[in-house]
Amino acid sequence: MDNRGGCCSGPVFVPVIKLGEPEESENYESFVQDGITVYVPKTIMTEENKDVKIKLRNILGHKSLIVNGVLAYKQKTWQKKKY
Predict the structure, then answer these.
(1) How much is the pTM?
(2) Whole-number CA gyration radius for the chain
(3) How far apart are CA 60 and CA 76, in angstroms?
(4) Is 60 a residue whose pLDDT tops 90?
(5) HSE of 17, CA atoms in CB hemisphere, 13 A
(6) Three-state DSSP class for residue 44
(7) I need a labelling partner for 40 at 20 to 30 A (CA). Which of 25, 71, 75, 80 fits?
């Protein structure tokens, strides 16, 4: 999950796919599916997100991976700074 929030909304984490092992692997659950190790943040391991799908998308020869089944979420601890 990457923070894609704005200055007014606070942190909003959206699902992204990256190659390689995460830097802070203790914050992730890992499992092997079809010979591929997948790392999923522990913070999103809920009943709502149990049916996650990763797909290969090919648009005009440009290939990319997409993830479905995980909703973006806001971090509840964020507080707006008062100036």
Answers:
(1) 0.58
(2) 15
(3) 40
(4) yes
(5) 16
(6) helix
(7) 80
